[in-house]
Amino acid sequence: MIVHGIRRNPVPPIRWIPDSLAIIRKSTSMDWQRFARLVGQSRSILQVDESLRFLQAHFDLMLPDEARIALKGIPVGSIERFRYGEQLSDAAEALPEAFFPRLRRLLGVYLRQSHHRRWMPVIPGFLRFLLYRTAGKNRLSILWYYLRRPPALAQTKQADSGEL
Predict the structure, then answer these.
(1) Whole-number Å distance between alpha carbons of 52 and 154
(2) Stretches in the chain below the pLDDT threshold 70
(3) pLDDT (tens digit per residue) in 16-27
(4) Nearest to 84 by CA among 161, 7, 160, 155
(5) Predicted TM-score (pTM) of this structure
(6) Among 104, 118, 142, 154, which is disulfide-ready with 98 (CB 3.0 to 4.6 Å)?
(7) Residue 121, Cα to own-chain centre: how many angstroms?
(8) Hey, how many other C-beta atoms are within 10 angstroms of the C-beta on 16?
(9) So where are the chain's domains?
(10) Rounded Cα distance, 107 and 83, in Å
């Protein structure tokens, strides 16, 4: 709940705010070590940290020092930073027309769904994910579509539509 509120969305999902506030304010004996362990396992440290800072700044949420200490003790890896950046990027759900931005966006989708903590296992898994995403489609025509498009054309098209 607290992680989904941070994600960019044309219609901001504000339901997470009262839900999070109610849970945190009512649970006087919250096990912050367990909470931090679960956040670490889901690789959502950056999202949870930003959400809690938002709640503190705008809704006067008083977090115990134990909560901050527990969350700060969790290391954040490069895969989590990549996922976090993709999650906050504009139009996170829309896939760009240009090949490499589209590939980057699909990598972000894959990493949100996978449990990899290192980049090496990501490569074969991501390739299988791409094969799954293109199932039933002529993969040669997809490849040809992107190969025949000059990269500048995709950027010009975006600039004309005001997306840049």
Answers:
(1) 38
(2) 1, 3-12, 88-96, 147, 149-164
(3) 888 888 888 887
(4) 7
(5) 0.60
(6) 154
(7) 19
(8) 19
(9) 16-72, 93-160
(10) 9
